Amino acid sequence: MSLRAPVSRSRVPVHASAPLLRSRRPWVEHWLDTCGDLQALKASHPMMDAVIDEIDGRMIRIGDQWLADFASCNYLGFDLDREIIESIPAYLDTWGTHPSWSRLLGSPVLYEEIEARLTELLGSEDSLVLPTITHIHMSVIPLLAASGTIFLDARAHKTIYDGCQVARARGAAVKRFRFEDPDHLDELLRAERDPTRLVCMDGVNSMTGNAPDIRAFAAVAREHGALLYVDDAHGFGVIGERRPDELCAYGARGNSVVRHCDETYDDIVLVAGFSKAYSSLLAFIACPTEVKDLLKVAAAPYLYSGPSPIASLAGVLVGFDVNERRGDELRRVLRERTRRVLDCLHRLGIHTPNQSGFPIVEIPLRDDRRIDAVGRLLFERGVYVTLAAYPLVPRDEVGFRVQLTAANTDTEVDMLIAALEELAERGELRTEDEVGFVLTSSDR
Ligand SMILES: Cc1ncc(COP(=O)(O)O)c(C=O)c1O
């Protein structure tokens, strides 16, 4: 960031404005203003920027307080799985802790094995792995968009937005379509004259916990010659292909939203990661071999970034085995734990946007100004959640997000349910009846 910009816009002579600027620090103040609520929470709240001193299963200790962790994204519990933990040292003995070549230079054969097994699991033409989804968005979105037009889901994840910003800096145009609204996308694409079109959106949404209607979006994209780019960070490993013998409505094999919606990969690029359901630092893009070959020479992280540690590569490979043998049973347990929480909210008449039954349950507050107090009550009752404060979410969606994992016990879910009952009793949570008549601090 150039610190000179405010000076050159000022009409005050540079020599006179310099001390004033030093004391005002406008580049800091702008952000403190925007992130003030979050900054205040971070500075004082035990559930923000916390130091976790110890874990025991899905219980975590912060200072003297033990809490049931409902903020983990380790949906299948692979982070605590004995079979996975005990398999990793043999990989370290063979490969050391870290490869440290950029992928263009060379990759341990583990990468080939991962990409082959992943491609088979997804049923895609090919796949390429890179360290994180953020790396993929920042490098692949600008490549696929070129100097064309990106149609961006208005509620897409921040990392997709950032990828689109890089694309814009390289000459692409960005237009936003309304969340969960394929008709609006259709309208925008119909009016567009640019022949290069990329549609970017989330799979399972990280706040609502719902999946988009991929079939409807794919149909619109195909009709208008656009490529659909989907980030299913939260769906991969959790939801998968529907089968008559599936153990629960999440589907089978955890092979992500495209298969869950019974779509093909024609004109669809799927991006997701192993850092949530598979508990390993690695991410992937499922794409045609032609695109993979292009990415190997044009996507910066393949050329310049360091690779994932061996423990993560091993975690993914052993994770594939565990997924094939026990994954569907773990997903059944995950579905059951989630169902208990959703049933509780339903019984209490408390609103959540979750209509899918997937394990992300956002619970908005009646009064966004109560976020600090509500978070403290949850902390005192031994329940750890993600606080969704402004500006992480719009003010009328301020609340907290609960994530279930297969490693959460029924006793931990009991603790969560007791805390939800208490918050509902105190009138802190928004009821179903109030939805549509939302009060925020600005209109109170
Ligand atoms: C939808 C979505 N996309 C991308 C990311 C970032 O993933 P990564 O840590 O692999 O960069 C997240 C992280 O929470 C996410 O929820």
What is the topological layout?
Blueprint: H1 5-9, H2 14-24, H3 26-34, H4 36-44, E1 54-56, E2 59-62, E3 65-69, H5 82-95, H6 109-122, E4 126-130, H7 133-145, E5 149-153, H8 158-169, E6 173-177, H9 182-191, E7 197-202, H10 214-223, E8 227-231, H11 256-260, E9 268-273, E10 283-287, H12 289-298, H13 300-304, H14 310-348, E11 360-364, H15 371-380, E12 383-384, E13 386-388, E14 399-403, H16 410-425
Parallel strand pairs: 3-12, 5-6, 5-7, 7-8, 8-9
Antiparallel strand pairs: 1-2, 2-3, 4-10, 9-10, 11-14, 13-14
The structure holds pyridoxal-5'-phosphate (PLP).
Output mean pLDDT: 92
Low confidence ranges? 1-18, 437-444
Helix content: 40-55%
Q: What is the terminal separation in angstroms?
A: 37 Å
Cα-based radius of gyration, to the nearest Å: 23 Å
Bound molecules: pyridoxal-5'-phosphate
Strand segment count: 14
**Share of residues in strands:** 5-15%
Q: Tell the overall outline.
A: globular
Number of helical segments?
16
Class per helix and strand makeup: alpha/beta
| Major sheet size, sense and barrel closure | 7 strands, mixed
Order of helices and strands: HHHHEEEHHEHEHEHEHEHEEHHHEHEEEH
Strand order of the largest sheet: 4-10-9-8-7-5-6
